[in-house]
Write a structure and sequence with these properties.
Elements (H helix, E strand, L loop, with lengths): L2 E12 L24 H4 L10 H13 L3 E2 L2 E2 L1 E5 L9 E5 L5 E9 L5 E13 L3 E3 L8 E3 L6 E7 L6 H18 L11 E11 L9 E6 L2 H20 L7 E6 L4 E7 L9 E2 L6 E2 L2 H9 L5 H12 L3 H8 L2 H14 L2 H18 L11 H12 L5 H12 L5 H7 L8 H14 L1 H8 L6 H11 L6 H11 L1
Parallel strand pairs: 12-13
Antiparallel strand pairs: 1-10, 1-11, 2-6, 3-16, 4-5, 4-15, 6-7, 7-10, 8-9, 11-12, 13-14
Bound molecules: adenosine-5'-diphosphate and magnesium ion (MG).
Length: 475
């Protein structure tokens, strides 16, 4: 009998505020350890947390963008546990009354099919500090710079049925939070990470199997591999007559395996209770309306608009709207060139490949939108051929100059003077009399040979259409 995988994700998105969720300490990355932890973050006696208004606005934006219910009253709760990186002895989170509940998100897969994934809840909480194991030979350090950094924990329904579906969902959330401007999405710095809950059941069963929770996955590739490994592991255990235990597991990116960390704790282990230092958060509808007015155009709407306004296919439109930076870059090229199709082609092929090769995000692209537009215009007006354009592109990428100066400097412009072309064709025909006879006797496939000869002489710079034309005429 076949097995079915069931996956639910808990995504932690670090909210892009300048100060922490309950204190005025900076959230900037890269500071010396413990230089950005104030008395509140350290949990010193007598201090009181004060909620950062910006995190509220961000959570509400997320709720509105996922069609969720925004709680008119939400409550912060203390989640108690003991750990060296948690000096207060508790984390401030939300438990019974989170700010966002019952949302949904449409996820589109590579093959164009879609699926609606339920969002159980999204709640606000503070991050903990970090234990540093590799700084001192026989001791562990604690860096509390992260303590109190705001997080939005986005909990999905167990609606995903494969590792690929889970990754597609996570990518969609990643794109959404960046569009909303509420999270920078930087996975290497840990601003966007997830815990994957995985179980398996016999196909057709309606009850859920026992799950394992894989902690702290900070790349899409790790999420995919960890889930695939975990599904296979659970199936193997069940098929050999064993049973799954509910536990927390860790993914090892070197071996690609998951291994047990600890037994799963129950909610009552945490002794949740409402934080007496923080007031319940009551939101009025005019506040929510104001937040709604500030929501920018979101990926799904932008994809639709790119299709209708620029005549793009769904696939290209989606690729170009995956990140707001890519979409902005594309629209800047279109504005400067007036060529939506060619702009889409260049960005989704040559530019995407070059960014990928050099490991760059588009906002660090060495080619300005206006430069790509200038290159496109040179193709349109016949100054250079498509083949030459690729050379110019590579040279601009290496910052040897802007497209126009590179074309001039390297003399790459296309040969499209009719008289020159005629002369070149005459020259080629005169030096290959045998082939000319064969052509005239019916071997018209030789046309390509003649074109090739002209291109050879001009190092590929002759206008191919004009060469073809001249050859036809003379032959
Ligand atoms: P906890 O906070 O203890 O991790 P939750 O009930 O909040 O527990 O669930 C966390 C996540 O686990 C959710 O995303 C949910 O969809 C998912 N989940 C719950 N049960 C299962 C299951 N049997 N298989 C896979 N995922 C599950
Ligand atoms: Mg969990």
């Amino acid at each position: 009998m076949a097995w079915e995988a069931v996956v639910g994700l808990e995504i932690h998105a670090q909210l892009a505020t300048r100060s922490k969720i309950f204190s005025g300490a900076s959230t900037a990355v890269g500071a010396e350890p413990n230089r950005q932890a104030c008395a509140i973050d350290l949990g010193l006696p007598g201090v009181l947390p004060v909620l950062n208004e910006v995190v509220l606005r961000m959570a509400v934006m997320f709720g509105l963008a996922t069609n969720a219910t925004i709680a008119p009253c939400s409550i912060f709760a203390r989640k108690n546990y003991f750990y060296p990186d948690l000096p207060k002895g508790y984390q401030i989170s939300q438990y019974e009354s989170p700010i966002v509940e019952h949302g949904e998100l449409e996820v589109e897969f590579d093959d164009g099919s879609t699926k609606c994934i339920g969002i159980t809840r999204a709640h606000l909480e503070e991050d903990a500090g970090k234990s540093v194991h590799d700084l001192f030979p026989s001791e562990t350090g604690v860096d509390l710079n992260r303590a109190g950094v705001p997080l939005l924990e986005i909990v999905s329904e167990p609606d995903m049925r494969s590792a690929a579906e889970a990754v597609a969902y996570m990518r969609t959330i990643h794109s959404l939070v960046r569009y909303l401007g509420i999270c920078d999405g930087n996975m290497e710095e840990g601003s966007f990470r997830c815990d994957a809950n995985v179980s398996v059941r016999r196909s057709g069963d309606s009850a859920l199997g026992i799950r394992a929770e894989i902690k702290n996955l900070n790349s899409f590739r790790f999420v995919e591999r960890a889930i695939e490994y975990e599904v296979a592991r659970q199936i193997e255990i069940l098929e050999s007559g064993g049973s799954i235990i509910q536990e927390t597991r860790q993914y090892d990116s070197v071996t690609g395996e998951t291994r047990a960390m600890r037994g799963k704790e129950e909610a009552n282990d945490y002794r949740y209770f409402p934080d007496p230092d923080l007031l319940p958060v009551e939101l009025q509808s005019d506040y929510i309306d104001r937040v709604r007015d500030g929501i920018p155009e979101l990926p799904a709407a932008k994809t639709q608009r790119f299709m209708s306004q620029y005549g793009l296919g769904r696939r290209d439109a989606r690729r170009l709207t995956l990140s707001p930076d890519t979409a902005d870059y594309y629209e800047a090229v279109v504005r400067a060139s007036g060529q939506p199709k060619l702009a889409a082609n260049w960005i989704t092929t040559d530019l995407a490949a070059a960014l990928n090769r050099d490991g760059l995000e588009i906002y660090r692209c060495p080619i300005e939108p206006t430069e790509l537009a200038a290159l496109i215009n040179c193709i349109i007006d016949g100054t250079i051929s498509g083949t030459m354009a690729k050379k110019v592109f590579a040279a601009v990428w290496r910052r040897e100059g802007d497209p126009i100066s590179i074309i001039e400097k390297q003399d790459l412009s296309q040969v499209s003077d009719p008289e020159t072309i005629d002369n070149l064709v005459d020259q080629v025909l005169a030096s290959h009399p045998a082939q000319v006879d064969q052509y005239r006797a019916g071997k018209t496939k030789l046309l390509g040979f003649f074109v090739g000869q002209v291109m050879k002489i001009t190092r590929g710079q002759a206008n191919p259409e004009m060469v073809n034309h001249a050859l036809h005429r003379k032959l």
